[in-house]
Structures are given as C-alpha cells and as structure tokens.
Amino acid sequence: MPPLPPQPLSPLDGRYRPAVTELGEFLSEAGLNRARVHVEIDWLLYLTDHSMFGSSPLDPELSRRLRAVIQDFGQADIDQIAELEATTRHDVKAVEYYVRRKLADLGLNEIAELTHFGATSEDINNLSYALTIREAVTEVWLPAFDAVIAELRALAFAHRDDAMLAHTHGQPATPTTMGKEFAVTVHRLSRVRSQIEATEYLGKFSGATGTFAADLVADPSADWQAISRGFVTSLGLEWNPLTTQIESHDWQAELYNRISHANRILHNLCTDVWTYISMGYFTQIPVAGATGSSTMPHKINPIRFENAEANLELSSALLDSLAATLVTSRLQRDLTDSTTQRNIGVALGHSLLALDNIRGGLGQISLNTDALAADLDANWEVLGEAIQTVVRAEVTAGRSSIADPYALLKELTRGRRIGQAELVEFVQALDIGDEAKARLVALTPATYTGLASPLVDHLQPPVE
C-alpha cells in the first residue's frame, strides 16, 4: 500500500482535537516559545528600566513596539524560531537569536547584549512553563472543571428529594436521595478545586547553579536577589530563592497530584452513573442519528461516561508520572524534566476531554423516578436498621425489655425479602412504646432517607 500523508500520532491531535484545542494555545511547542519570547523581552526591559550596565529606559513607543513582538506572535514567528533551532540545535538559544533579530529590526542593537543576560536556559524555561501552565489551568482546564461542578450542583438540588435505594458493598442499604449523592461529589470536587486554585506558581532566575555567580561578577554592587525577586514577581509568579540550576518543580508536582485527585473523583462519578444507568435509575436520552451498537439497534450505550473513564485514567497516569519524575534532578541539573514537561499538555488534554464527555453525558440522562420507587418498594428489609435502632432507644428509656434488638432484626431480615405487611405485623408485636410503634409503622423505604435532602444545603445553590 502507498504510505499515508503525515498523520497525528496522538488522538488528542486527531480525533479529539476540537475538544482540547484551547490547550494548544499554551501547552504546545509554539505556546512555550511565545512564553520564552515573553520572558526574554520582559527581562531585557526590566534591565533597561532599571538602567543596568549603563542602559536607560526605552522610549515608550519603542517599548510598546518591542512588547508588540509578544502580542503579535504568530505563524511566521513560529517558523522563524524553528528555522533558527535547526541550526542551533538548542531551543532557548534559538529564541535568544530570534529576539536579537527583533531588536535589530527596531534599531536597538545597542542593548542586544542584554538579551538573555546572566540567564541559563532554565531561567527562561522555568518561568515560561510557570506562565503557560498557569494560563492553561486557569483559562482552560478550570472553566471546564467548573462547568462540570455546576452541572452536578444543579442535579444535586433538582433531585434532593428523589429517594433511592442505596447500595453498600453492592447490596441494598439505607435509602438516600439521588441529589444527596450528587452533592457528595460536588463537595469533594469543590475541596480539590480550592487546592488547585491556591497553587503557588514558583519561578527562579539565579543562573547556572542558582548562585547568581555570573551576575555578581558582572556587577558586584547590585542586589541580585532583589533584582531576581522583582523580575519574577513582575510576571505574577512567586519567587523561589533556593534552587539549583532548575526551579525544583515541587509546585508542579503538587498541582499534578491535585488534578490527578480530581480526575479520580470524577472517575468515581462516571462508574457510579454508569452503574445507575445499568440499574435503570437513569434513562438515556437518544441523540438523533446516533448509533448505540453496530448490531443491536435497541441500544443506547453510555459511551460518554466510558470515554471519560478511559481518559481520566490516562490523564492520571501521566500526571502521576510527571509528579514523580519532576521532583528529582541529578545533582544540580539533568535533562529528564525537559522531555517530561513537554507532555503536560497531553496529561491535561486527556482530563479536559474527559470533562467534555462528562458534561455531555450528564446532559443526556434523565432520572427514572418510577424505577427508583419500584426498587425501594421491593426492599422493605432495609428498615431493619431503623427498627432495631428504635428498639435500642426504647430499651434505654425503660420502655422495652428486649434483650438483643440487633439479633432480633437480623433473624427477621438477613438474607430474605420481607414486605410491608410482614414488617408492620412484626412491629405491632414488639415490646416498645405506642409512639415508637406508630413512627415505625408509618415508615417506608421511600421516607427513610434521614437528612439526605437538607444535607444538600451545605452546597451553595446553583446560580440562576
């Protein structure tokens, strides 16, 4: 067969590209190079603004035109840097030469030697990654995550009173409400979201081994720690004063662990919703023209949740690897982080794709309250917990002499189905007070949901 034209190797750049394309703005090679240009130009301007080495602040118009290099960065610039790298065989050096060309175009050759001044490549890279990762998380991933939380929050309030049979260990258990179960997931996700939002994006700018050695030789009188701190914080990042050649990447590990944790909570949601669909608790809304099975025309498969499961697993596997790998660098520097960090977009991409599928899946299901009611009515034995607890209270209050309430109910209910009539007859014969009997006789599986509904109020209500 003739060879195919060049094809994307990753499904994120092929089949699923529309769902993740926004991440490419920041976590692609082009996005990284734009950030490098940003850091190089800002560093040069920081030095001139502070009149370092006899320089002076640029004319406002020249400064504006130099910053426009960042704002107008596009395909021609991407191609130019790629052409330079083909010669330099060094990505950051290519960016330096690109910036020098722009200075020449603007007639600023007199400050060209301040380009990349005193910087090791990692000074540029660590700041560039911090900027691109921060933007990718805050501008792309978090909004998608928030949209899923908002959808779940709306479901929690909408179904707060819809009683359903719970299942612990896969067996019928004390009833809950569907809304309360969604509220649990919202609460879990919201906690992790706060931790992700609180991420410290750290940066260093201290030379080849983090000692400011070259800077200090160039100007022994300058306060290089203050200069470094001022520059890093001017980018909106937190300054890390103690590093080797690299920023230690601990903040990245913390961030990836938190996003991986969020992935796993979402994975739990997907498996639960999938199970509720298989139990008939949710019906799936048919999508016009969609095919569920190539051979069984009746089927509507829960593919959104299955796709999300797989992508959450892939994302967490990559994020876990990133978190484990990035915190280790041999002695003062090795290059393992260089290749590793180029996969950050892939890791977040699989999570973003999962979020898209979860949101889509939640919009294609409808609660089957008839199925919930039927399941509750078929499991009156779950009231055994309520009965033996009331009997214990009656014994303690001196209104009953029953010796072992738990054993009594265990003999009645364990491993067998009982109906309402049998349960009422059993309660009426108990040695307990009349008020307690009346409460138990009036109880049904559908009303035995405790505080499930008011517990939902621990969440902020949905925004109308």
What's the short version?
With 464 residues, this protein is mainly alpha-helical. The chain has helices at 17-20, 24-27, 29-49, 60-71, 75-88, 91-105, 121-158, 178-197, 213-218, 224-234, 250-279, 303-326, 336-341, 344-362, 369-377, 384-396, 405-413, 420-428, 434-442, 452-455, and strands at residues 163-168, 171-177, 202-203, 238-239, 282-284, 365-367.
Task: Characterize the structure shown.
- It is built from 20 helices and 6 strands.
- The strands form 3 sheets. The protein has a two-stranded antiparallel sheet. It has a two-stranded parallel ribbon with strand order 3-4.
- Strand 1 (163-168) and strand 2 form a beta hairpin.
- 37% of the residues are buried.
- The chain has helices spanning 17-20, 24-27, 29-49, 60-71, 75-88, 91-105, 121-158, 178-197, 213-218, 224-234, 250-279, 303-326, 336-341, 344-362, 369-377, 384-396, 405-413, 420-428, 434-442, 452-455; strands at 163-168, 171-177, 202-203, 238-239, 282-284, 365-367.
- Helix content is 60%, strand content 5%.
- By secondary structure, it is mostly helical.
- Give the overall shape, derived from the CA principal axes: elongated
Biggest sheet, strands in spatial order? 1-2
Determine the number of helices (DSSP H or I, runs of at least 4 residues). Answer: 20
- How widely separated are the two ends? 58 Å
Main sheet characteristics:
2 strands, antiparallel
Mean pLDDT: 94
SSE string, helices as H and strands as E: HHHHHHHEEHEHHEHEHHHEHHHHHH
Could you give the count of β-strands?
6
As a percent range, the share of strand residues is under 5%
Q: If you compute it from the alpha carbons, what radius of gyration comes out, rounded to the nearest whole angstrom?
A: 31 Å
Helix percentage: 55-70%
Poorly predicted spans: none
Structural class: mainly alpha
